[in-house]
Structure formats: C-alpha cells, structure tokens
Amino acid sequence: MPTHLTYVKHYRDLEVYKRQRALSRGIFLTSKTFPSEERYALTDQIRRASRSIGAQIAEAWGKRLYPKHFVSKLTDADGEQLETQHWLTEAYDCGYLSKDDTKRLVEQCEEIGRMLGAMIRKADSFASDSYSVREKPPSYLTDPTDRE
C-alpha cells in the first residue's frame, strides 16, 4: 500500500484541501473590500470559484475507488482554480487588488494546481480496496454519549 495514503482517512486530511480552504478564506477577506456594485458580479464569482475547488476535491474523494471518476472531479477542481486565477486578474485589472495580493493569491492557486496534477498522475494509488467508501462522521456530528 502506498505510504502517502496510510494517514489520509478523509478528504479533510489532504494537504491540497487544507490549502484550498486557506485560499478561500484569503479571497473572502480580500473581496470584502470590493465595491458594493460588484457584490453580485465579481465578488460572487471569485468566492464561488475558490470555494468550488474544495467541493470538487471532496467529490473526487468520494469517487476515489473509480480512477476515471476521481480524475474527472480533480480536473474540475483544477478548472475552478484556473477560473479563480482569472477572477483574481480581473479584480487586479479593476484596481480592487494590489499587485502583491494578486501575486500571493495566484501563487496559492498555482500550488493547488500542481498538487491536483500530482494527484491526477497518481490516481490509481488512491483506489485501494483497503479504503471504505463511507467514512465515519466527524466527531461534531456524533452523539458524545455514544462511545465505541
């Protein structure tokens, strides 16, 4: 069994997912400064695209036993990070983001893209029979009096 998967029990354990969440939070905080007339246009688009990266990673994880489906969802996640880069460039062009903020956020997108690419190249290693399709629910969704 590949050693890089022995500790990954859930998509929330994936480093790429953690980095996507940091990117999404950064974009949320930065986009709060966008003008109100952009609320339903650029602000909504950039937040949606950045959040969708994580949703696609989560969906990919659920399909990891089927490498072609897994790759399909990961390529969707990569498409969302590229869309996020586009919206960051638009925000910069409109003067809503500084050059430094744009560079930092685009670099985060690019790193996520590289990580997704590595996962795509190693898709078969995620489809191990030793992993169940259904994970246990997170502790915050379980009854604390119900101990195993």
Describe this structure in words.
It is a single chain. The chain is an all-alpha fold and 148 residues long. The protein has one domain (23-128): de novo design (two linked rop proteins), CATH 1.20.1440. 61% of the residues lie in helices and 0% in strands. The chain has four helices and no strands. It has helices at 15-31, 39-62, 67-93, 99-121. Helix 1 (15-31) packs antiparallel against helix 4 and helix 2 runs antiparallel to helix 3. It is globular and about 50 Å long. 28% of the residues are buried.
Weakly predicted, low-confidence segments: 1-5
How many E strands? 0
- Structural class comes to mainly alpha
Give me the CATH architecture, please: Up-down Bundle
The outline comes out as globular
The count of domains is 1
Portion in beta strands: under 5%
Q: What about the largest sheet? A: none
Radius of gyration: 17 Å
Question: Termini distance?
Answer: 27 Å
**Briefly, what CATH class?**
Mainly Alpha
At the third CATH level, what is the topology name?
de novo design (two linked rop proteins)
Q: Could you name the CATH homologous superfamily?
A: 23S rRNA-intervening sequence
The helix/strand series, from N terminus to C terminus, equals: HHHH
Helix content: 55-70%
> What is the mean pLDDT?
88
The total count of helices amounts to: 4
